[in-house]
Amino acid sequence: MQPLNDAARGALQSLLRETPLSPGKVRFAWTAVVGPAVERATTVRLEGDTLVVEASSAQWAREVSRSTPVIVRRLKGLLGNDVIRALRIRAAPTCSEAGSPKPGAAPETAASEGSESSRRERGWGPARK
After folding, report:
1. Which of 12, 64, 66, 73 has the most CB within a 10 Å radius?
2. Rounded mean pLDDT of the chain?
3. pTM to 2 decimals?
């Protein structure tokens, strides 16, 4: 006998893969994968096969960045292997940072489930710190 959780996950995967790609579908899959706390701290949009994640703070951006391999794998499971290949994570500037970014600070990082070399192959170069 199959657990109910497995059946529900399979049904969700089937439904999502059969519906046309839309911003709402991507946001729904994002919420299903990361949960409500991360969803409240982020906004997402799809650019090609890269999901751009805008985090409300540098701390949330780091949390998403640390979880990138798991997030990408789960998104591929829900949306299909060719829809999202990588995440680009940005921290929204705080009020004090909005006018004058800190020297050497990089508000955006590129992350994928691949290696450093695969990021270079895609033209992203190494992830910034």
Report:
1. 64
2. 77
3. 0.67
